[in-house]
Design goal:
Elements (H helix, E strand, L loop, with lengths): L1 H20 L6 H9 L12 H41 L6 H10 L3 H18 L1 H12 L2 H8 L11 H20 L3 H25 L7 H15 L2
Helix pairs in contact: 1-3, 3-4, 3-5, 3-6, 4-10, 5-9, 6-8
Length: 232
């Protein structure tokens, strides 16, 4: 739901930005005027909404799931290292459980940034085809116009579901896999550091706001394991 709202609100901005980047219009005002004066009118600002949702929603899912998976694995790895140190050095004091729990509770800022960067890069790469499709639909480029001749996307009606599918089919037929991955490198160059910084700040504020990072069952499992080891 959140990503649907975000995609809806970003759609006009994305269309104006892409038209300026492609040199279709000389300014944002000129781009807005041309869109409003077109056959689509005000709704033309959302002509690529379906393509944008097909990009943004899977992107968010892939990025967040990958990030949580990477963090979980890294936390488990750090906890295991602490367990081995406790076993090797002997846990005669009372710090065995606390040390293991503390290791599971926190990753360093660089580790959070690393997980975020990898997750953002994977999400970006997997959804790059829909980013290309969204750009073609929004700009109504020659490729979109050519699809009209083949019964596909037209210059005026390319924003619907059928238009998105037709643009994808035309792109695959004319350019293949390389066409779907067009622009992947600059997108990765943007998304990897952006997500690294985003998740670094996200975890920082989770810590500042004291948001509990470990599920209760996870704490209980770690503590029980440490207690069993201590009583051996």
């Amino acid at each position: 739901g959140g990503n649907f709202v975000a995609s809806f609100l970003r759609s006009p901005y994305e269309i104006l930005k892409q038209r300026l980047q492609a040199g279709v219009d000389p300014s944002a005002v000129a781009a807005l005027q041309r869109i409003l004066n077109s056959e689509a009118g005000f709704l033309g600002l959302w002509q690529g909404l379906y393509a944008q949702m097909a990009r943004d929603i899977p992107y968010a899912m892939a990025t967040l799931l990958t990030y949580e998976l990477l963090r979980t694995r890294m936390l488990e790895w750090k906890a295991e290292k602490i367990k081995l140190r406790s076993i090797g050095g002997g846990s005669g004091g009372g710090g065995g459980v606390e040390s293991v729990t503390a290791a599971v509770a926190a990753l360093s800022s660089m580790e959070n940034a690393l997980c975020g960067g990898i997750a953002g890069g994977l999400g970006s790469f997997l959804t790059n085809p829909m980013d290309v499709v969204m750009t073609r639909v929004n700009l109504n480029t020659r490729s979109a116009a050519a699809s009209t001749e083949n019964g596909g996307v037209g210059a005026s009606g390319g924003g619907g579901v059928a238009g998105v599918v037709s643009t994808f089919q035309l792109l695959w037929a004319s350019e293949g896999c390389s066409g779907l991955l067009r622009g992947a490198k600059p997108r990765l160059a943007h998304k990897i550091p952006a997500n690294a910084l985003f998740f670094l700040c996200y975890e920082f504020f989770r810590k500042i706001l004291r948001v509990d990072d470990i599920p209760n069952e996870g704490k209980e499992g770690v503590e029980e394991s440490a207690k069993n080891r201590k009583h051996r």
